[in-house]
Amino acid sequence: MPSRLIVSRELADLFKLLAHPDRLRLVEELGAGEMDVTGLADALDLPATRISQHLALLRAQRLVEERRDGRNHFYRLSNPHLAAWVLDALPFIDIRQRLEDAEHFDSARALWSAREPQSSSSK
Amino acid sequence: MPSRLIVSRELADLFKLLAHPDRLRLVEELGAGEMDVTGLADALDLPATRISQHLALLRAQRLVEERRDGRNHFYRLSNPHLAAWVLDALPFIDIRQRLEDAEHFDSARALWSAREPQSSSSK
DNA sequence: CCCAAGCCTGCAAGAGTTTGCAGGTTTGCA
DNA sequence: TGCAAACCTGCAAACTCTTGCAGGCTTGGG
Q1: Which CATH architecture has domain A3-80?
Q2: Who has the most CB within 10 Å: A38, A83, B110, B123?
Q3: Distance, angstroms, CA B93 to C1' D12?
């Protein structure tokens, strides 16, 4: 029984789904609580259409759940632990090469989690 | 400072690298200790060329390290925790839909970890 | 009833990934 | 020195993913 093959394919699909900067940021944003599409678009500074397309993918694999309230569609993580698990990957990235600001992985985590003022600096 | 953008891109690169069944199996195999290319090719039942190509990608992002001994190239995980972290993703996959054998995530983990006889059953 | 806000889907061009194959390098052994 | 084992790299065809755009649906307010 090639169970390991099946599991590895399923896992690969999950990793594929998360293998996009926008979607990772969505997951982290939703880790803080549910939010509607416009709110997510504002938070990530991306067109709402793109957010919607990413959410459709996350929805298709049941990583997020939808709740409709009037015209707004609110999304939340199906499993709230997902955001923390994603951040657990920080020790594995070779961040030292390209993020000069952060001397340690801990500060990288802090940088991510920090709620920056969403106004002045663009992308 | 768009630190979060940089971190999300780095993380996405990591996820992209792991978003392939063969490479996930390589990581799990190497989680048990170092192995040479032929050994990995036998373990995964794949052509050695393909293994080599996957390893080149993992090496480029420093997820694995190489040690040469004569004609053999032995590979090991740069960070041994990687394999365990990958398995921590099992609760997030919607495995119930497609792996009828496994009733619970725990058994999926067990199925993965189980050392199956590598002989009879093909792929 | 009509409009606009908020969101969704389909599509196609461009970009990126995967894979087998051909050909190369290095090492060990006779 | 010659040969074979064990790997590595480059390439091109096939495939998949991304993204903006055009268009569609539903809801709430006037």
Answers
A1: Orthogonal Bundle (1.10)
A2: A83
A3: 35
